[in-house]
Amino acid sequence: MNKLAVHGKNLELILGNITRHSADAIVNAANSRLVGGGGVDGAIHVAGGPEILAECDRIRSEQGGCPTGGAVITTAGRLDAKFVIHTAGPVWRGGGIDEAGLLACSYRSCLELAEKNNCRSVAFPSISTGVYRFPIEKAARIAVRTVIDELKRRAIERVDFVLFTSADLAVYEKVLEEAARDMQ
Ligand code: APR
């Protein structure tokens, strides 16, 4: 299953590169210092151009970066989006320091900020499941369930998860199916 309707809104799973995706807001799996990095963060800065990092630098000097589970918003530069929303997901350290709660917080913070900025569509990568080593199935379950809950109460019409590998997509498909069953 790769699509779910939630209260007339759409959640969709897509295989691809998020830097080529079109949405009002594209989410970046960043770090707390907003200094750029590898993975999806590196790809977004390369494709979007230097304006994005310049705004991250300004945010860091004004408010010291982005706490884990929080989110900040910048221009999307050359990306096909109005904004990039940067969130710092938790580093997986075995599950004992509320990594699950912090990951849910990341998704919620992004959607709250998207709504505040009148975004109707938001695209997420799989936050924390690369360099930060959050186990993919646990992370997918938190991602999908948190987004479903938020879609019910926010003025956001579409959320896409843009998954980079077919293995990740398969995990998200399984988790979406479970969540859809639970909604019935
Ligand atoms: N489009 C979509 N997904 C991507 C892309 C892309 N272009 N590139 C990588 N990914 C996927 C990875 O396959 C992984 O599933 O994004 C997911 C998140 O992986 P990371 O980018 O490593 O992010 P994360 O685990 O949250 O680690 C964040 O990595 O790059 C640094 O600055 C970043 O320090 C921060 C840390």
Description:
By secondary structure, the protein is an alpha/beta fold. It has one domain (3-183): 3-Layer(aba) Sandwich (Leucine Aminopeptidase, subunit E, domain 1). The chain has helices at 39-48, 50-63, 99-116, 136-153, 166-183, and strands at residues 3-6, 9-15, 25-30, 71-75, 83-88, 121-124, 158-163. A hairpin with a 2-residue loop joins strand 1 and strand 2. Adenosine-5-diphosphoribose binds next to strand 3 and helix 1.
Write a brief structural summary.
The protein is an alpha/beta fold and 184 residues long. Helices cover 42% and strands 21% of the residues.
What's the gyration radius in Å? 15 Å
The CATH homologous superfamily is termed Leucine Aminopeptidase, subunit E, domain 1
How would you spell out the order of helices and strands?
EEEHHEEHEHEH
Query: Which bin fits the share of residues in helices?
Result: 40-55%
Low-confidence stretches: none
Do you know the CATH architecture?
3-Layer(aba) Sandwich
What number of structural domains do the residues give?
Answer: 1
Mean pLDDT figure = 97
CATH fold topology: Leucine Aminopeptidase, subunit E, domain 1
What class do helices, strands and sheet pairing give?
Answer: alpha/beta
- Order of strands side by side in the largest beta sheet? 1-2-7-6-3-5-4
What topology does this entry show?
Blueprint lengths: L2 E4 L2 E7 L9 E6 L8 H10 L1 H14 L7 E5 L7 E6 L10 H18 L4 E4 L11 H18 L4 E6 L2 H18 L1
Parallel strand pairs: 2-7, 3-5, 3-6, 6-7
Antiparallel strand pairs: 1-2, 4-5
The chain binds adenosine-5-diphosphoribose.
The site of adenosine-5-diphosphoribose has 26 residues, from strand 3 and helix 1.
